[in-house]
């Protein structure tokens, strides 16, 4: 549980750092060059985002240090002294202090009569924030620590400027009239191009150090997460390129074109935050080059993704209890336990394939009854509730509250609750009972949240290769879930004529998601 909490604290800290760095660049570079009459007010609003992000980063770092100290507590109390004597504690404390300094400087600049007085301090503090953020990462344990720390700091700074700036751009585009996106995105677009180039170059250097070979990239959980991050980066780059070209070709955009740009910025900012969450997960995993014998071979990975007929038979709960070490993460997984898990995944996949097919048929307008496809989620939720985590009520091997101490179980329960909400809300939208209700956005929100959870999913499996195979399977599911969620989001947010294209994506994406589950294998 401590590792699970530390992961999400790292997510919060990295998101806070991103907002602080991106907000600083947006206020000083983008807004600082603007000639709009209300630029000072907008810059002050951005500085509030900087202060909030830096404070979030500081809180996350402080709680992380406290949690680590509590984990090593003894009869003398929490091990704060020992922690602060260690390299990890000292660098974490430095990151905390710098984050507080950035928050203080941003608040002071927010209240000052002139932003120029504080601009230099904010730039220096932001650079130190990125540097100390890199110091608590993987570079700390490498031989060429200095070079990797510098490259990592530059990578984090560029990512913060781009993605944090996207969030600021999104905030401004939703607050102003239809022409505002054009005016505010044009200077940011030029800054984003520089940031993207820096991310790509520094990413290559870091990948060479921490992954080194294609075999490590496909044979370790670290490499698989980096490949997923690259896929998100490509999606971000594609969306950003569309916006950049639109800004260059249409300097005086119509209201409709401006709305399309605004909606794409929403998706770009959202994808950027998802990428930050995945980056935090990557930072919590050991580098691929250090995996040693825990690597999977290309043949094993190919075998994992080779389609086979779904498993439709499963051991009984009594057989499962008698032949496996349910409730003991250190126990090897028995064939019966693996069969139970594969059966649950495969049958769930068949449900989702059917949903995707019906959703695709619904869009043709020729099969009106297909609009009731969300009702299949009720059956799916019931099946998952029965098959999920068999060490619980099916066998009684682990009590309810002991079971809820497992991060994996908690994540499964969250996904189940999200599925139930999605089923009811989307059926009301599809059936025409509440077509314009606010909960029509539950579909994309649930799909996006599910994608995030799948991409940051942690497993209590003692065998490193089994954990790797699960990770490799969950990452494609997360990417497809994000594709379905964001395409549905665009369909809802864009004008009717513009939303048709994205609307044709999520149904087939459901089918792909279901097929991955239907062919799922753990070995």
Walk me through what this model shows:
The chain is mainly α and 523 residues long. It has helices at 2-30, 39-71, 80-85, 87-111, 116-135, 145-175, 180-210, 214-219, 221-249, 255-283, 298-304, 317-323, 335-364, 376-387, 400-403, 407-430, 442-455, 464-493, 496-503, 506-518. Helix 6 runs antiparallel to helix 7. The chain starts with a helix and ends in a 5-residue tail after the last helix.
Give the proportion of residues in helices: over 70%
Alpha-carbon Rg, integer:
24 Å
**Order of H and E elements:** HHHHHHHHHHHHHHHHHHHH
The main β sheet shows up as: none
Poorly predicted sequence stretches spanning 5 or more consecutive residues: none
The helix count comes to 20
Share of residues in strands: under 5%
Mean pLDDT: 81
How many β-strand stretches?
0
Structural class: mainly alpha
The dominant shape is globular
Q: How far apart lie the N and C ends?
A: 26 Å
Oligomer type: single chain
Key phrases:
mainly alpha; 0% strand; 523 residues; 74% helix
TL;DR of this structure?
The protein is mainly alpha-helical and 523 residues long. Helix content is 74%, strand content 0%.
């Amino acid at each position: 549980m401590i590792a699970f909490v530390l992961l999400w604290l790292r997510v919060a800290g990295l998101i806070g750092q991103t907002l602080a760095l991106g907000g600083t660049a947006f206020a000083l570079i983008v807004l600082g060059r603007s000639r709009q009459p209300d630029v000072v007010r907008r810059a002050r609003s951005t500085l509030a985002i900087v202060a909030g992000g830096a404070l979030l980063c500081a809180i996350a770092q402080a709680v992380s240090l406290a949690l680590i100290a509590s984990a090593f507590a003894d009869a003398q109390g929490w091990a704060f002294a020992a922690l602060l004597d260690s390299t990890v504690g000292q660098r974490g404390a430095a990151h905390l202090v710098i984050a507080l300094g950035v928050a203080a400087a941003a608040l002071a600049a927010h209240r000052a009569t002139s932003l120029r007085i504080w601009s230099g301090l904010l730039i220096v503090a932001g650079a130190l924030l990125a540097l100390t953020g890199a110091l608590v990462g993987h570079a700390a344990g490498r031989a060429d620590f200095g070079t990797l720390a510098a490259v990592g700091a530059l990578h984090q700074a560029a990512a913060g400027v781009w993605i944090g700036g996207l969030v600021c751009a999104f905030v401004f585009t939703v607050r102003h009239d239809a022409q505002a996106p054009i005016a505010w995105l044009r200077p940011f677009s030029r800054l984003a191009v520089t940031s993207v180039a820096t991310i790509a170059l520094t990413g290559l250097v870091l990948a060479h150090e921490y992954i080194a070979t294609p075999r490590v990239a496909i044979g370790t959980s670290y490499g698989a997460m980096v490949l997923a991050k690259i896929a998100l980066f490509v999606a971000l780059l594609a969306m950003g390129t569309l916006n950049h070209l639109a800004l260059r070709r249409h300097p005086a955009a119509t209201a409709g074109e401006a709305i399309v740009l605004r909606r794409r910025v929403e998706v770009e900012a959202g994808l950027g935050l998802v990428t930050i969450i995945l980056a935090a997960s990557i930072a919590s995993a050991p580098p691929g080059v250090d995996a040693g014998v825990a690597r999977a071979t290309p043949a094993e990975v190919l075998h994992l993704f080779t389609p086979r007929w779904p498993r439709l038979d499963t051991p009984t709960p009594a057989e499962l209890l008698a032949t496996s070490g349910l409730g003991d993460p250190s126990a090897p997984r028995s064939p019966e336990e693996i069969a139970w898990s594969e059966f649950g995944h495969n049958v769930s996949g068949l449900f989702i394939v059917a949903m995707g097919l019906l959703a695709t048929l619904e869009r043709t307008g020729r099969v009106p009854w297909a609009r009731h496809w969300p009702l299949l989620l009720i059956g799916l939720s019931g099946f998952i509730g029965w098959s999920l985590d068999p060490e619980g009520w099916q066998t009684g091997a682990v009590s309810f509250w002991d079971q809820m101490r497992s991060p994996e179980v908690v994540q499964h329960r969250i996904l189940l609750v999200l599925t139930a909400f999605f089923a009811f809300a989307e059926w009301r939208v599809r059936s025409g009972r509440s077509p314009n209700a606010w909960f029509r956005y539950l579909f994309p929100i649930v799909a996006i949240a599910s994608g995030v959870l799948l991409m940051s999913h942690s497993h209590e499996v003692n065998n490193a290769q089994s954990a790797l195979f699960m990770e490799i399977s969950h990452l494609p599911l997360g990417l497809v879930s994000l594709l379905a969620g964001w395409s549905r989001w665009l369909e809802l947010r864009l004008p009717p004529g513009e939303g048709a294209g994205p609307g044709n994506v999520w149904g087939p994406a459901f089918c792909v998601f279901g097929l991955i589950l239907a062919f799922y294998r753990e070995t």
